[in-house]
Amino acid sequence: MHKNLVGSFFGSAKKMLRVDDQIHVTHKTAPPYDLWDLVGLGSGNSLICIECADFKRSWFKM
C-alpha cells in the first residue's frame, strides 16, 4: 500500500517538474522499507535517480 502511494506520488510530482527540477525523498533503509525499490518506482515513472545519500540529521535544526 505504501509502495503504491510513493509510486503515485512520483507520477503526480513528475507532471509538475521542469527540465532540471528534482524530487528528494527521505526514507528508512531497514526492512521492510528496503523492499520498496524507490529507484525502480521512479524509473517506472520516467524519473532517474542521480544520487543516493545518507540522511544527515545535523542538516536540520531540532
TrEMBL record:
InterPro entries: BMT5-like. Residues 2-61 form the 25S rRNA (uridine-N(3))-methyltransferase BMT5-like domain. GO terms for biological process: rRNA base methylation. GO terms for molecular function: rRNA (uridine-N3-)-methyltransferase activity. This is 25S rRNA (uridine-N(3))-methyltransferase BMT5-like domain-containing protein. It comes from Solanum tuberosum (Potato).
